[in-house]
Amino acid sequence: MARSVEFDEELAIRAAMEVFWEKGYKGASLRDLTDAMKINPSSLYNTIGDKHALFLRCVQRYTDDRTTYIASHRASGRSPVETLKIFIDDAVTNITTNAHSCMAIKAAFEVAADDIRVQAILKEDNDAMYRFLCSLLTLAIKNGEIKTEEDPKLLTDYLISIYIGWHESFILDRDATKIKRMARFLLRQLTR
Asked: Are 85 and 187 in contact (CB under 8 A)?
């Protein structure tokens, strides 16, 4: 008779997520993952599947956390510009204090080009972030908080590109002051 596998799957997924976040998909060994999860390989295979299935679950968990973050901002009742400022400040803090950068960006560059399942998760995440930022910018323009003739969709694309660029800049330079200065400049440009 097979033994029942008992462990807190949510905690195990989060532990594995940290390993993938730090080492990437290719750099994370099965041993790294099961050690972090505090389970044996057979428990992994019996409950979640192989390394790739675990990676998909971890990327989904990471993007689900970002969806929760967006929902909390949507429900905040703050003005669109105030919400946008908080979003940008949070992005700067995350970029400059998280040693592993953004898991979604790392997964996009390491795995997503060749993996349609990872692409689908990241596309859904990106689309949710896009809708959130576009709605903020559209409302801020409508309310006169941002005075521009630019299309909110173009501004959203620009903002997302800037955000991704900040990650790369910090990875290469490790200069938090530079990222903070760019964020202040971006806010001045949007709200002038």
From this structure: yes
Instruction: Please tell me the pTM assigned to this model.
Output: 0.89
Q: Whole-angstrom Cα distance, residue 19 to residue 13? A: 10
CA distances 127 to 83, 122, 131, 134, Å, are 18, 8, 6, 10
The string of DSSP letters for 91-129 reads HHHHHHH-TT--HHHHHHHHTGGG-HHHHHHHHHHHHHH
Please say whether the beta carbons of 126 and 96 come within 8 A.
no
* Residue whose tokens read 């044996």: 40
Q: What is the C-alpha to C-alpha distance for residues 192 and 137, in angstroms, rounded to an integer?
A: 14
Contact (CB, 8 A) for 183 and 163: no
Q: Minimal CA–CA distance to 90: which of 180, 190, 186? A: 180
Phi, psi of 174 (to 5 degrees): 50, 40
Q: What letter represents residue 89's amino acid?
A: D
Tens-digit pLDDT profile for residues 110-129? 999 999 999 999 999 999 99
